[in-house]
Structure formats: C-alpha cells, structure tokens
C-alpha cells in the first residue's frame, strides 16, 4: 500500500489513514507500558499544538533528511506538479 501511495498510483485517504492510525495506536497500547503511552501522548499533543503555528510542509521542504524521506519512491523526486 505504501509503495503505491509513494508512487502516486493511489491515495491512502482519510478512511485508510484513520484505520492505519487506529492499528498503530492499538499496537502501541497492546505492546507498551503506561509510561511509554504517556510519552507518545505528550509528543502527539505537542506536535498537534505546534501544527497550529508551524507549517510542517515547509519544515519538511527545508530539512534535507525529511525532504528525502518525504519524496522517497515518488515518480517525480522533485515533487513538482505534472
């Protein structure tokens, strides 16, 4: 699924990303202790709050490692419109 999404052949979309998030959350709860769960919760809340002030798209574009990860597998590595 990630392969096709990265190559822009299909889109995960809201429904798919909600299912993926639920699966990851369930996996976290099922495999970690409460301290790890609190740390993850605090990090997610901080990122959510930061997203109100900071453009994550801009941060990704300005950070070479994040930009490379974001563009991994794309047909157009520069991410320009076709």
Hey, roughly how much beta strand do the residues contain? Answer: under 5%
Structural class: mainly alpha
User: Oligomeric form of this entry?
Assistant: single chain
pLDDT below 50 for ≥5 consecutive residues: which ranges?
none
Largest sheet: none
- Shape descriptor reads globular
The whole-angstrom Rg is 16 Å
User: How many angstroms does the end-to-end distance come to?
Assistant: 22 Å
Helix count from the secondary structure assignment: 5
Mean pLDDT, to the nearest integer, reads 84
Provide the succession of SSEs.
Answer: HHHHH
Number of distinct beta strands: 0
Describe what you observe in this structure.
- There is one protein chain.
- Helix 4 crosses helix 5.
- This protein has 5 helices and no strands.
- The longest helix is centred in the N-terminal third of the chain and has 19 residues, at about 15-30.
- The chain has helices at about 1-5, 15-30, 35-50, 55-60, 65-70.
- The mean pLDDT is about 85.
Brief rundown of the structure:
The protein is an all-alpha fold and 82 residues long. Helices cover 68% and strands 0% of the residues.
Characteristic terms for this protein:
single chain; 82 residues; mainly alpha
Tell me the layout of helices and strands.
Layout: H1 2-6, H2 13-31, H3 34-50, H4 56-62, H5 64-71
